Amino acid sequence: MSNPQDLLNNNPGLDTKHDSAGAKHPDLNTAGGNPKTNTEFEYAPEGAHSRLDGKDQRTHGSALADAKRVEELEQKVQAQHEEALKHPTSVATQHGNEPSRGAKKDEQLVEDEEEELKKKDEAKKQSQEAHKPKHH
To answer: Is residue 133 assigned to a domain?
Structure first.
């Protein structure tokens, strides 16, 4: 009974085009194409969407301006990411939400670590000053 044709012959009311929820599925042989028209999708050639393609219609200046714009966007995203790491509650407050207890605790830990590092740096400077040779 593992043969699909035998299963259909023994159960003529079995609907193989729909699943148990009633959703219709396309034939497996048309996968990768439009199920309504049964035509295959057209795929762009490899590298067709490259921003740095030298064969496109943009001028050199336009390509440089685009590259500069993309670089500035990447730097902005990196700065936002670093800011989010410094202030774990900033993302929630930017979205108008109250930060979670975990985010509040993380921010408190970051502040405590920064304060401790400042104290250690200050103590290190004082120690270096105390150990400097005194010239007469």
So the answer is: no
Which of 32 and 63 is assigned the larger pLDDT? Answer: 63
Quick check: helix, strand or coil at residue 35? coil
Helices (H), ranges, 23-130: 60-86, 90-94, 101-130
Separation in Å, CA 53 to CA 45, 47, 63, 94: 13, 8, 9, 37
Q: Yes or no: say if 29 and 40 are a contact pair by the CB < 8 Å rule.
A: no
Q: Which domain holds residue 16?
A: 4-40
pTM of the model: 0.40
Q: Tell me if 135 is assigned to some domain.
A: no
Compute the distance between CA of residue 107 and CA of residue 113 in angstroms, rounded to an integer. 10
Specify the higher pLDDT residue, 4 or 133.
133
Q: 65 with 35, same domain?
A: no
Model pLDDT, residue 69: 92
Distance CA 85, CA 79 (A): 10
Number of domains forming the structure of the chain:
2
Given pLDDT bands bounded at 50, 70 and 90, which one contains residue 116?
very high
